[in-house]
Design brief:
Blueprint: H1 8-11, H2 15-24, H3 58-70, E1 74-78, H4 81-95, E2 100-104, H5 109-118, E3 121-125, E4 128-130, E5 133-135, H6 139-145, H7 147-152, E6 155-159, H8 170-180, E7 183-188, E8 208-211, H9 213-216, E9 224-228, H10 231-244, H11 251-261, H12 267-276, E10 282-283, E11 290-294, H13 299-308, E12 315-316, E13 320-324, H14 331-347, E14 367-371, E15 384-386, E16 392-394, H15 402-410, E17 414-415, E18 417-418, E19 421-425
Parallel strand pairs: 2-3, 2-6, 6-7, 7-8
Antiparallel strand pairs: 1-9, 4-5, 8-9, 10-11, 11-13, 12-13, 14-19, 15-16, 15-17, 18-19
Helix pairs in contact: 2-11, 4-5, 4-10
Length: about 425
Amino acid sequence: MNTFLTNDAVLADCKIYQMLLKHAQEPHLSFHTPGHKIGGWDITELSFSDNLSCPRGCIAEAEKDIARILGAEKSFLLTDGSTAGVLSMLYAVKSLGAQTVLVCEASHKSVFNGCAVLGLTPLVYPCEYREKIPYVPTMYALKQKYPHLLQQADVVFLTSPDYYGNVADWQEIRKYCDQTGKLLAVDGAHGGHLHFDKTKHAGAFADLWVDGVHKNLPALTQGAVVSAKTKRMADALAKAVDIFRTTSPSYPIMASVEYAVKYPRNEALERAAETLQQHPRVYKNEDWTKLCVRFGKSAFEVEKNLENQGVYAEFCDGNILMFYLSPATKMQDFERLKAVLEDLFAQYPLQEEKTQTGEIFTPKTEPEWVPFAKANGRICAGLCGLFPPCTPLFSIGEKIGEEKLTTLQQANNVFGLKDGKILVFKEE
């Protein structure tokens, strides 16, 4: 673990790491879980190691530090990923009386799953597209197009930043929620690093939010934090995380989350990434960690080309390749990526394409699984899409079109499909 967490100045201030370091340096026989019996760094709740379910020692100190950095009344460590945070936020708002949640169709599947499990009603509105890239409409657009959904909603649930680096228009959204008394919950699974910039970070605006620090800060996979702005919200969230968090949290993950939140800003890399975003083939967004490079119909071919060179993008959506940076990205690796991209731009000229959008229907028949070859023109009966970004490519009730269907067939990783089949409603 000490080979993964390398910033000594940060480690000196990490309470959980220091506890683990002290234990790892002492002689010990592990007659406790986990079963690998290596002991040292990966331990369970012992007399000295504190307890995530009721923290009073190093974990409590770490959570207090994290809350201060993120601008929260209370922050809770998560070793189950941002999904546990999303479920906890939904449970918390329901416990405070919410019944309806305004949510974009491009939200992570955990939002829809959480609503289904908790009995909340999702009021779903479509995303919009810019250069074939989905983004959440502004508050002005929501007021103009979906005033009835806004009026019905108890909670405004946003994803910001999204997987493509789009950031919500925070000032207007916060103003609207203050005027109407609605709660604002935010899936910031891709925004932990934005705490450096309070004009973009959810913590400056939301009532409840989750930061998925393993995605864009140097934490181990599944490391996240869910936070509340006020004591009332914190009390509700505390009950929620007690339900959805594991009772066997990983101490290395917890230590890495504290380390990641305290990791310093990399302004030189930020400036370099923002400069690259000025390139005409790169989608200009508001988040320097997400380089969305357009390759159009050649995207999957380019992905294979890159992997043959040992360069791995975060995902390919059939149009763009997204390259994920973090403050821990080495400048020499970033420069190599730039050079590789310049060669690819010459090799794969971009051809402009139109975005295919699907019409939503309300069928009244039972669902059935059909092969891809028989799915074109049918009505989708289950959320499905690419993984990542794990946002629906087809929504329930959407008429299946050939372009998106081809994207699903070409993708390496998907969700919502089974054995080369897609769930559709039976034809009447």
